[in-house]
Design a protein that fits this description.
single chain; 430 residues; alpha/beta; Udp-n-acetylmuramoylalanyl-d-glutamate--2,6- Diaminopimelate Ligase, Chain: A, domain 1; UDP-N-acetylmuramoyl-L-alanine:D-glutamate ligase; Protein-Tyrosine Phosphatase, Chain A; 3 domains; six-stranded mixed sheet; 16 helices; 19 strands; 22% strand
Length: 430
């Protein structure tokens, strides 16, 4: 069956799961969710331009344009894996981690694109649906596929690794996030480490290992590894350090017997040194010259509310509002403390999915914020329940009303919170 489905895919190599986005001649996969059934929209997708509709409800299949499978999501994942197997010349690198995986994916892809074609995960399509959709965009030409994978429950990275079948793996770090789903920090390590397990069990090429992360070094064991890290990291083949961060990161890196390379980036946050060094290590492994690595990293412009600096004319904004967990929040506050400014302010939103540790972790953030000599606004019920004297808001709408009534000007402002707090709506008012 998968061979037949793949033959259709080769004729119609654009895949959609949204009946509102129906490129002419594409394949529509009728996925189901908690509140919708894609089977009910299959005919609509065909009428709007799709050539084939893959469904798992035989009742909607009224003509030969419908392909009936047992389960549409499983078929999508199997098709993606099968397509990946038809591309033996393409180097597939799978990236996961608690923090920095999207930025690392972007930086790695930017560096490798200096020497050849690269397809990579767009946006944040890193789950059980997004990963197969990304794989199905891979082209026949040799080059690189950079696949980001995320997880909030045990077993997810193992499942995604089986779909991706990576040649090499990269875990950015392991931190305290999604504790509600993982159960504990040990659960985080075990789940992220499923990528290392796959590389080990299937005798793949190896991994890119941050030798400055003790947990990762222990998890990797004797896996073949290209090691990178901060200056002094044991066994690192290339190491680097932050030169300055005010507000953009300037860093330098070197190999043994080779002089320092210095790069001025457009990234905010000293914590990005690990993401930058990962991109350097990957580039060096595949023969990208220093000059092109440096050019790629210097020209990379962050977007998607990650490590982004924006001068609005009224205020200077440090926007890191796509996601937040205790590890990334602590790093963001540490970095903000190093930025020089006369009037500093932090707008911090709740961290989600922390389970029983939520109250403790929010209190830790509040306690750390006290030390930074900045005005602080806290958004969400979790921060409201912590012990502090800062100003609190129920949600982002309340913050927006305050900003409309009393606009801010002349501040350097950190905006940081989980995506669900929707703090990314604030920059337009600042």
């Amino acid at each position: 069956m998968i061979e037949q489905l793949y033959a259709l895919f080769r004729q119609h190599p654009v895949v959609t799961t949204d009946s509102r986005r129906t490129p002419r001649g594409s394949m529509f996969f009728a996925l189901k969710g908690e509140t919708f059934d894609g089977n009910q929209y299959a005919l609509q997708a065909l009428q709007a331009g799709c050539a084939v509709a893959v469904v798992d409800d035989p009742k909607v299949a009224i003509d030969k344009r419908f392909v009936v499978v047992d389960d549409v999501l499983t078929a999508l994942q199997q098709l993606a894996h099968y397509h990946r197997q038809q591309l033996p010349g393409k180097m597939i690198i799978q990236i996961t981690g608690t923090n920095g995986k999207t930025t690392t994916k972007e930086l790695v892809s930017t560096v490798l694109s200096q020497i050849g074609p690269v397809q990579w995960t767009q946006g944040n399509l890193n789950n059980h649906i997004g990963v197969p959709l990304t794989l199905l965009t891979l082209q026949d030409d040799d080059g690189f596929g950079i696949i980001e994978t995320g997880a909030n429950h045990p077993g997810e990275i193992a499942q995604l690794s089986r779909i991706v079948d990576p040649d090499m793996g990269l875990i950015t770090n392991v931190g305290r996030a999604h504790l509600e789903g993982f159960g504990s920090f040990e659960g985080v390590k075990k789940t992220k480490g499923e990528l290392y397990d796959y590389i080990r069990q299937h005798n793949k090429i190896g991994i890119f290992l941050n030798a400055s992360e003790e947990n990762l070094v222990a998890m990797a064991g004797n896996l073949p590894a290209v090691r990178y890290g901060l200056t002094g990291a044991s066994g690192a083949e290339v190491w680097g350090e932050v030169v300055e961060c005010n507000p953009f990161v300037k860093f330098r890196y070197r190999q043994e017997h080779v002089g320092w390379q210095v790069v001025q980036t457009r990234l905010i946050g000293a914590y990005n040194i690990h993401n930058l060094m990962a991109a350097v290590a990957v580039g060096m492994q595949f023969g990208v010259p220093f000059s092109l690595i440096n050019e790629a990293l210097a020209n990379y412009q962050p977007t998607n509310n990650r490590s982004e600096f924006r001068d609005t004319g009224r205020n200077r904004l440090v926007i890191d509002a796509y996601n937040a967990n205790p590890t990334s929040m602590a790093a963001a506050l540490d970095n903000f403390g190093q930025i020089k400014a006369e009037r500093k302010m932090m707008i911090l939103g709740d961290m989600r999915e922390l389970g029983a540790d939520s109250a403790l972790e929010h209190q830790r953030v509040v306690d750390k914020a006290v030390e930074l000599n900045a005005e602080v606004w806290l958004v969400g019920q979790n921060f409201a329940q912590a012990q502090h004297t800062f100003r609190t808001f129920a949600d982002v709408e309340a913050v927006k009303q305050e900003l409309k009534a009393h606009p801010l000007e002349g501040y350097t402002i950190l905006i940081k919170g989980s995506n669900g707090t929707r703090l990314f709506q604030l920059p337009e008012l600042l």
